[in-house]
Amino acid sequence: MRHYTPAPVLRALALTALLPALAAGADLIGAETCKACHPSAYEAWKDGPHARATASLTEAQRQDRRCTSCHAPDADKGASGVGCETCHGGGRVYAQAYVMRDRELARAVGLVEPGEKTCLACHTESAPSLTRFDYAHKLPLIAHGREPAEGARRRGHGE
């Protein structure tokens, strides 16, 4: 009878526990990369307020961390405005087609499915705005991603 050695099991468990932490610090891949498989989501983003978030600031505000923490949160990583990965997490690990086809795996390695709490990180009562942020009202204005990934579908990888 073979002796059971838990080392491989322990290594697998450790790796599973570390993957989300690695993905959280994952490099950004940029909206152009996301566009390859999600062109309609990209178009919705490109034409929306998040893509232009930095442009809406004055030059002085662009130097003020109180403003850029929401209008350009990933500027230190070379990203402008509020991009896909600002809300969905750094995509270096989860953007691979084989990962994106497996929703559970994609989430396990860093894909964030944002909700109201994500939005409220920036859209707060103290944020300068003409109107109070109403998640239910604002969400349809940026709706995207409900359609199957078009690039994956073209390659025969439907969801």
What does it look like?
The protein has helices spanning 7-24, 31-35, 39-46, 59-62, 65-71, 84-88, 97-100, 103-108, 116-120, 135-142, 150-154. Helix content is 47%, strand content 0%. The longest helix is centred in the first third of the chain and has 18 residues, at 7-24. It has a single domain, classed as Flavocytochrome C3, Chain A (Flavocytochrome C3, Chain A, domain 2, Orthogonal Bundle). Mean pLDDT is 81; it is low at 21-26 and 151-159. The chain is an all-alpha fold. Residues 1-23 form the signal peptide. Pfam families: Cytochrome_C554.
Kindly summarize this structure in a few lines:
InterPro entries: Cyt_c-552/4 (IPR023155), Multihaem_cyt_sf (IPR036280). By secondary structure, the chain is mainly α. It is 47% helix and 0% strand.
Show the helix and strand layout.
Elements lengths: L6 H18 L6 H5 L3 H8 L12 H4 L2 H7 L12 H5 L8 H4 L2 H6 L7 H5 L14 H8 L7 H5 L5
**CATH homolog superfamily:** Flavocytochrome C3, Chain A
Mean pLDDT: 81
Number of strands: 0
Structural class label: mainly alpha
Q: Estimate percent helicity.
A: 40-55%
CATH fold category name: Flavocytochrome C3, Chain A, domain 2
Strand content: under 5%
Helical segment tally?
Answer: 11
Which tags fit this structure?
47% helix, single chain, 159 residues, signal, disordered C terminus, Multihaem_cyt_sf, mainly alpha, Cyt_c-552/4, 11 helices, Flavocytochrome C3, Chain A, domain 2
